[in-house]
Amino acid sequence: MSTITATAPTVSLQRFQEIRARTEKICAPLEAEDTVVQPIIDVSPPKWHMAHTTWFFETFVLQPHLPGYKLFHANYGFLFNSYYNTVGNRVQRDARSTLTRPPLRDIYAYRQHVDEHISQLLQQLDDDKAAAIMPLLELGLQHEQQHQELLITDIKYILSTNPLVPAYQAAPTKAPHTTAVAAEFLEVPGGIYSIGHQGSGFSFDNEQGVHEVLLQDVQVMNRLVTNGEYLAFIQDGGYTDFRHWLDEGLALIKAAGLKAPLYWLEQDGEWQRFSMHGLEPLDPHQPVCHLSFYEANAYATWAGKRLLTEFEWEAASQLYAPSKGNFMESELLEPAAATPGASGLQQLYGDVWEWTYSAYHPYPGFSKAPGALGEYNGKFMLNQMVLRGGSCATPQSHIRTTYRNFFHPDKRWQYNGIRLAY
Amino acid sequence: MSTITATAPTVSLQRFQEIRARTEKICAPLEAEDTVVQPIIDVSPPKWHMAHTTWFFETFVLQPHLPGYKLFHANYGFLFNSYYNTVGNRVQRDARSTLTRPPLRDIYAYRQHVDEHISQLLQQLDDDKAAAIMPLLELGLQHEQQHQELLITDIKYILSTNPLVPAYQAAPTKAPHTTAVAAEFLEVPGGIYSIGHQGSGFSFDNEQGVHEVLLQDVQVMNRLVTNGEYLAFIQDGGYTDFRHWLDEGLALIKAAGLKAPLYWLEQDGEWQRFSMHGLEPLDPHQPVCHLSFYEANAYATWAGKRLLTEFEWEAASQLYAPSKGNFMESELLEPAAATPGASGLQQLYGDVWEWTYSAYHPYPGFSKAPGALGEYNGKFMLNQMVLRGGSCATPQSHIRTTYRNFFHPDKRWQYNGIRLAY
Amino acid sequence: MSTITATAPTVSLQRFQEIRARTEKICAPLEAEDTVVQPIIDVSPPKWHMAHTTWFFETFVLQPHLPGYKLFHANYGFLFNSYYNTVGNRVQRDARSTLTRPPLRDIYAYRQHVDEHISQLLQQLDDDKAAAIMPLLELGLQHEQQHQELLITDIKYILSTNPLVPAYQAAPTKAPHTTAVAAEFLEVPGGIYSIGHQGSGFSFDNEQGVHEVLLQDVQVMNRLVTNGEYLAFIQDGGYTDFRHWLDEGLALIKAAGLKAPLYWLEQDGEWQRFSMHGLEPLDPHQPVCHLSFYEANAYATWAGKRLLTEFEWEAASQLYAPSKGNFMESELLEPAAATPGASGLQQLYGDVWEWTYSAYHPYPGFSKAPGALGEYNGKFMLNQMVLRGGSCATPQSHIRTTYRNFFHPDKRWQYNGIRLAY
Amino acid sequence: MSTITATAPTVSLQRFQEIRARTEKICAPLEAEDTVVQPIIDVSPPKWHMAHTTWFFETFVLQPHLPGYKLFHANYGFLFNSYYNTVGNRVQRDARSTLTRPPLRDIYAYRQHVDEHISQLLQQLDDDKAAAIMPLLELGLQHEQQHQELLITDIKYILSTNPLVPAYQAAPTKAPHTTAVAAEFLEVPGGIYSIGHQGSGFSFDNEQGVHEVLLQDVQVMNRLVTNGEYLAFIQDGGYTDFRHWLDEGLALIKAAGLKAPLYWLEQDGEWQRFSMHGLEPLDPHQPVCHLSFYEANAYATWAGKRLLTEFEWEAASQLYAPSKGNFMESELLEPAAATPGASGLQQLYGDVWEWTYSAYHPYPGFSKAPGALGEYNGKFMLNQMVLRGGSCATPQSHIRTTYRNFFHPDKRWQYNGIRLAY
Questions:
Q1: I need a labelling partner for D262 at 20 to 30 A (CA). Which of A44, A247, B209, D69 fits?
Q2: NCBIfam families under this entry (chains A, B, C, D) (predicted)?
Q3: Which residues contact A235 (CB under 8 A, 6 or more apart)?
């Protein structure tokens, strides 16, 4: 039977508190008004994220497992359920900006209330209870970490739509590396690879079902594609030459008038980019990101290369020990240029999620868990593409080699980028 | 030449301050989060209303007339212009919820800054300057009063979309009259009537151009149509019998699935209504409101009567001294039942705007003022219907016999209701 | 009581046959394939027009009044009802192109079948029956004439969407007048005018209810606005200067990218126009047509003038004997230039329908006839503007001084044009 | 290098003429009016299919290879190009119903003109020329066969939207088998399978790139899922139980109000189905078809099974010799019930295309051919699902084991059905 977590982990109170505190740290620079809007359906109000992750612990941990627990508010289940049909009715996804009430301070109170009861629960745990609760608690923390990344990308989008283009945080005083690193290609030899999660650590159901896959030889680029390389594609007429594009991608960029990645801005021949530090000149050595799959694939076609499959990526990751990644914890919140002189595959983890040419489908033997948690992943397994490796907005402890992220191919507001292969 | 104001009025500092303070009083019960959302395009964020009315004074009074005046913020012109093409680019009307910044406290500071400079300007005024400034100041206050009404209707709508259906204010401790008043019809005799504004008081350009109109005899209902009467229409199958409806109205209610006025809610055969006091049982003697023109006209057709024209309404208003009205200042913010035993035409002013069967077109001789203020009214003179008499959300000093309000016939979020004639 | 026809007319078999034959003559140049498509919702398939006018006679004349009449086909009532809710369900207006069957030849057979039975009915008529039937027959013929005009405008639109831009008919061998006629303005003096239909001839219910209207002095242009005059408006930047436009008109031309009237085409600085004779160079003296109300009104504003009201138009028509008009019977099917040296108001009838600044509302005392025929006009009395005078596609015997045509202000596919006043 | 065809085939004049004649036979029962409409964007007008397949031969064979060939009509390239950007501008896909001209008889003349010149070309062929032309001619015929299937599905859809629900052809006098065949599951053992086309016959570029794939053991159902089995799913509440559905599928059926496959009609508890023979009672043993992928997958989930991947299907097809299939040539044009007593996997070919849970992606090593023919398949390789095995509308000579058909998961108008596995 497939389960969300392979084994029963142990969640310490300290780790619980650290992860919960991080969410609030992410939201600290915001105005209350920033936390309520939903400029596009993909972007949820930050207030909603903060409440929804709390609702998750209340619904799946406290309600069933803490005797005598009283709901913080009778209606919050309706307000802050995301997509669990099993759990009942809910505010429609596109109506989350109707939630001007409860105000932000109530959400903080809600968080505190739930955190205190989780703390109380953890202090009275016997082994039997721990076996039941720990997997749920672990899932709740993994879920919270996913929403930390979404909080960052959603805040970035919300700020970008404001005509005042406010910065989320000041730019780092010491600028990141901006030296060119030559593109090289390293071989991942063909053969049978074991794909999917094994071992005792946490994993999601969608990466379980270890199975063997037969691969051909593939040459994989040593670093991510950069802004400068992508700009060359643009300047070569890349957005107007149909030969590079999948048909639906071409229709999309025509209909929407797209001419560059999200957050790029050209004025009088100068390119700028909206970042978490406000509008900045384009850094040519920074990895390109905020691209759709269509743009990533068009770039690869133009470059005479292709994207990896998710299996090739996982095989490459098994062969090449990754360099240290640029994750959320660096608090840069933007991808960083590759390091000159480094060997192996750089930037495999962190910086940007790498679009693969693999549809997000079930692994062999996949089956949904019974009940609400079975809705976590399985029902989304169509029309989306797998991304691998995490980004500069991903918590470091959240990512692993077998991790499968997934988005529709037109989505651009995540930190998604490109690695080439052939 | 048509001008916005017929003569140069004198605006006292006290009146200026009272009207400006009223706007802030209206917003006092709100959370910051309430002030930023735009659930439908018609409903502007309260924060935007507060800033836009302030921008009006800054742009049309302080900038041209206060030497050395410095803008509060260089971008606010772009952010808070509503629809004046003459003045330049602006945030699109449907993107007002992107303005999470500036935060609410900055808007209050903006209001204070402008108010202080208006105060300063008023204290150094010679006669020549007064002649130039007073009409603009008067227009600014009239404009602020219009937005006070919009603030009330928009706040009501915003709260109504919240799943928690919060009340704006507590219900009055003493309940309003709820005794039935019999419907009677009073004659307005045919003949030539003088229509349009004359005299020295303020008026808008759209009500100027006094002209004679020839009317036939008409019988006018002594009070507004009530919730109870409208409920009878619903219960008689009014929403499904095509014979009562204009063709486009029928298409609209079918497409939107409408079965009752806005804010009405039926559960298990009991009717409730969302009001500024939260959800309440339907009061049968309260005037029905939050109706489209289509619903008002369908009701009239069902009742074997018709709506008045705006000229008939104005003639009736000339003949029958109005009873004291239920305006914004009563702070009830909902229409009140008619008074038993009163004579003449009741509820002609206040309570609800009365839909007329008159298109909002220019009066003979109408011409737009040059410059930005010529955009105030003239460019909207198509596809909208005239409403007369003000509502429970209208400031009492803002309304008069010749006042022409106008909305598209499908709009329901204003306090719009029905008076019959034949 | 209002009725569709004021008195009982006598319809001769010859007139019936002539009008019915004209419909088929209009369709004679078409391919069967032309008769089935509906490129926009406004444009009905010609086959549908031919069947619907026939259904009208079958439903309202033969079924109730010819004993023993058998329906041509049990389903045609469902297929060819236009908008009469009273008569029952029907094919939705936007789905008329689903009617590939019955094929065109069946529609001709249907027409012949109904015509033969009408002929049979007319030959066995006693006086009582005639009194009941003649008004319906007359209405049926007036209705058929309305659809003749629609057939012409719809055929023009259908052909225009074809990439081959086929001509409906050859251009006339002798070119029409193309000499400039100077614009002059003739006075219609103010006073009380009697508006609406009286007398024994046919009229629609919407023009009945004779009533007096008080008008001011008005100066009326002696001819229609020409292509050349309108081109000057375009070349003066008319489509990009917001000051000329009603707000909704401006939004419309921006959203749709409109830069000229329908059927105008600019290539390399040369203007052409699609006509019933195919693509032709723009004739500067031909009346401009295929304009929206917004364009007509913007032109008038740019020219420092205005459009007439429908009452002014009718008063002008009472004072100035119209010159002979260019109607459908001339078979030119395009408006013709004004005649040099003519006196009075030219082109008042025929050539193009003249947009008025009058909403299409009920006249005082208007009431719908009971039953299906009451749906003919009344339910459309909102959001549409009145046009007067008929066009080059209007049958001459169909038009009169009091005739009220009506369309939404954005509609351009009719032969609608401009006369100025001030 | 990838090419459309692996080797140079020899196309005989007889085969060319037979395939071209079949297209016209398919269209013979149509009225001219049937051939011009496009009720949904997926469904092209039959006239367009007939012209487009002819344009293919003219553009890719006659123009480059028949010296002195004159185009039948200068504009037909613009009118009848489908999606080849390389070849130039074209009528937009959603505007094909504007092509009322050229009339059907001109399209027949066009076909005859091109056929005669192909015949002429084939009779003067030397070996060098044959090597260049034969692959194009073969591709043209394969393309024509694809459009034969589309003609059938599009005609079915067009007739189904007509309120008269006309039959395409009379029902066969001898009814097909309607005896129940028990569901059994046959094993396809795990191991390495060679996937993709090899050998000298024709194949498309999307099935080339033979490669080895590692499969697990899988149990495959011996026949297709039937109407009766699918009805049990419906009657068990299958369309309202979210647990069976992919999230986007659930949203789709809710938004569109879907409650059964396309062409199913329930009246008073009795199920009927629109077929090429008109409305018929539902046959419980006929394979279910006209389903979306979402419906197929929901059924499989409800049944506790799953769909095959395309690799499993191809492996199964290598192991089990297919029974004779029900293809276009049987002229039944509806799927037929399984044969009692047959062994192996029945209905693997013909009857209905089988949805697989494989995204339509490039095989390893896939590369687009240069020029226009490279646009044939490659640019569609996203967001679509692979279907295998052909249907009752597929020409028998067109299908093979490695053939990859592909449609978006929401498409229902093709003959698409279900085979289960576990």
A1: A247
A2: egtB_TIGR03440
A3: none
Report the pLDDT averaged over residues D303-321.
Answer: 95
Are D5 and D133 within 8 A, CB to CB? no
Decide if pLDDT at C404 tops 90.
yes
pLDDT, residue D82, reads: 85
Is residue C152 within 8 Å of C30, Cβ to Cβ?
no
Q: Contact A282/A265 with Cβ under 8 angstroms?
A: no
Cα angle B132, B133, B138 (rounded to 5 degrees) comes to: 125
CA distances in angstroms from D10 to C223, D112, D134, D203, listed in the order given? 72, 22, 6, 14
CATH architecture group of domain A185-421: Alpha-Beta Complex (3.90)
Give residue D172's pLDDT: 83
User: What pLDDT is stored for residue C322 in this prediction?
Assistant: 67
Q: Which residues contact A252 (CB under 8 A, 6 or more apart)?
A: A258, A292, A294, A410
Q: Report the C-alpha gap between B254 and B249 in whole angstroms.
A: 9
Distances (CA, A) of D287 to A68, C275, D279, D422: 55, 54, 17, 19
Report which secondary-structure segment, H or E, holds D185: strand D185-188
Q: How many CB pairs under 8 A join A and B?
A: 85
Query: Is there a contact between B246 and C293 if contact means CB atoms under 8 Å apart?
Result: no
ipTM of the complex in this document: 0.94
The pairing of beta strand C416-417 with beta strand C353-359? parallel
Range with the poorest average pLDDT among A178-182, B334-338, D104-108? A178-182
Q: What are the extents of the domains in chain C?
A: 13-161, 185-421
> How many angstroms separate the CA atoms of C157 and C155, rounded?
5
Q: How distant, in Å, are the alpha carbons of A408, B322, C204, C340 from that of C368? A: 55, 34, 11, 45
The shortest CB-CB distance from C246 to any of B248, B294, B379 is to: B379
- pLDDT confidence of C6, banded at 50, 70, 90? very low
Q: Check residue D32 and give its pLDDT.
A: 97
CA distance D49 to chain C (A): 15
Cα dist. C402→A120, B415, C203, C319 in Å? 85, 38, 8, 13
As a 3-state breakdown, chain D gives helix, strand, coil percent values, each rounded to 5, of 40, 15, 50
Which H or E run includes B106? helix B104-123
Alpha helices in D104-126 (DSSP H): 104-122
Minimum mean pLDDT range among A48-52, B56-60, C197-201, D145-149: C197-201
- Those of residues 361-390 in D touching chain A at CB distance below 8 A are 361-362, 364-365, 379-383
Q: Does the distance separating the beta carbons of B162 and A99 come in below 8 Å?
A: yes
- Rg of chain C over Cα atoms, rounded to whole angstroms, equals 22
Contact across the interface for D162 and C100, Cβ inside 8 Å: yes
How far does D78 lie from chain C, in Å, by closest CA? 9
The predicted structure's pLDDT at residue C175: 65
Note the pTM of the prediction, 2 decimals.
Answer: 0.94
For chain B, the straight-line distance linking the first and the last C-alpha, in angstroms and rounded, comes to 37
Separation between Cα atoms, residue C65 and residue A64, nearest integer Å: 76
Per-residue pLDDT tens digits for A218-265: 999 999 999 999 999 999 999 999 999 999 999 999 999 999 999 999
B253-309 pLDDT, tens digit each: 999 999 999 999 999 999 999 999 999 999 999 999 999 999 999 999 999 999 999
Name the residue among B262, B307, B287, B413 with its Cα closest to residue B352.
B287
Nearest to A349 by CA among A319, A375, A323: A323
Would you call the peptide bond into A102 cis, given omega within 30 degrees of 0 as the criterion?
yes
| Interhelix angle A13-27/A104-123, nearest 10 degrees | 170
Q: How far apart are CA D409 and CA C399, in angstroms?
A: 55
Q: Are B285 and B227 spatial neighbours (Cβ–Cβ below 8 Å)?
A: yes
Average pLDDT score, chain C: 93
